[in-house]
Specification:
By secondary structure, the chain is of the alpha+beta class. The protein folds into 2 domains: 128 residues, no CATH class; 132 residues. It is 20% helix and 21% strand. The chain has a 7-stranded antiparallel β-sheet with strand order 2-1-4-5-6-7-3, with helices on one face. α2 runs antiparallel to α4. The radius of gyration is 20 Å and the shape is globular. The mean pLDDT is 91.
Length: 291
């Protein structure tokens, strides 16, 4: 018996993965036994992807137990998957993962469990707010003619969505490698700060444009870098209609922020834990290389 648990929390970095085998896996399975069915009308998952924690993706990698599907998601004690919409026996399973050995075996910062717990509570608040109704989007007077079209259907398919992140989407460059700033140039960022991630992106030939002030460039298209200090980075891109869109990690592309509002300016958007706005940058089509 073995389990692979992906902590769905990052946008730029790869999500952390916990592998459980033997007695640890058996203990987890006991805690994950389905209890009462989730009633119609109870809060489910937001229909749009959000920044920050989005739940645990649990995969049975060994001989599966019959009570649970091969892969399912757990959020705040709710288990959601194929023919599964139930409360877990241990409704605090996420705390169990945070507070015990498995998560501490990860090659992550010592403070990660504390960060994860904070994010779990933040996401709980987001779930309470659904369903959200965004404002009416009025036509923008000065569209960005050089910007990529907003085509979520192209990105949100199984052969592309899981393998391309916010950096791929912002640069409009599919690599299927969860591209990292600077990796193609052999100069990946050393720390998760505005300075290091921006410098790494410049090695990929993105042009730093801090004075862009949310205005469309004459050539190429505008992107924006933000960071969750010490934990992760995220990118947005400005579209032809003047609004911004983004792709939180391996989740679908969306045109909404964490409050389900369209994004006229990423500096004022609800960005969840990505509290530091770093800079605007310009992507010159055909002049960058990412990996």
């Amino acid at each position: 018996m073995s389990l692979r648990i992906t902590i769905d929390i990052f946008s730029g970095r790869e999500n952390p993965v916990v592998e459980l085998t033997g007695k640890e896996a058996q203990e987890a399975i006991k805690r994950l036994q389905p209890m009462r069915r989730i009633e119609k009308g109870e809060k489910g998952l937001p229909p749009e992807p959000t920044l920050g924690y989005r739940g645990l993706i649990i995969e049975q990698t060994g001989e599966p137990v019959k009570e649970l599907p091969k892969v399912f998601r757990l959020v705040h004690g709710d288990m959601l998957g194929a023919r599964l919409a139930h409360r877990a026996t241990d409704e605090a399973f996420e705390d169990f993962i945070c507070d015990t050995g498995p998560v501490r075996k990860l090659d992550l910062e010592e403070e990660f469990p504390k960060f994860m717990k904070k994010e779990i509570e933040r996401f709980r608040g987001l779930r309470v707010k659904w369903p959200w109704k965004g404002p009416v989007v009025w036509p923008v007077k000065s569209p960005c003619n050089c910007a990529p079209l907003y085509e979520p259907a192209w990105w949100n398919v199984p052969q592309r969505q899981p393998f391309n992140n916010c950096y791929n989407y912002a640069t409009n460059y599919r690599t299927d490698t969860f591209a990292q700033p600077g990796r193609a140039a052999g100069a990946i960022y050393a720390t998760l700060t505005c300075t290091d991630v921006k410098s790494a992106a410049m090695k990929d030939e993105l042009i730093n444009s801090p004075k862009a002030a949310n205005k469309c460039p004459k050539e190429g298209h505008l992107v924006a870098l933000v960071v969750a200090p010490g934990w992760d980075y995220h990118w947005y891109r400005k579209g032809r209609n003047g609004y911004w869109t983004h792709k939180p990690g391996s989740t679908p592309v969306t045109n909404l922020d964490n409050s389900a509002v369209t994004i006229p300016d990423p500096r004022t958007a609800d960005r969840g834990p990505y509290t530091n706005f770093c800079t605007f940058m310009v992507v010159m089509h055909g002049h960058i290389k990412i990996k």
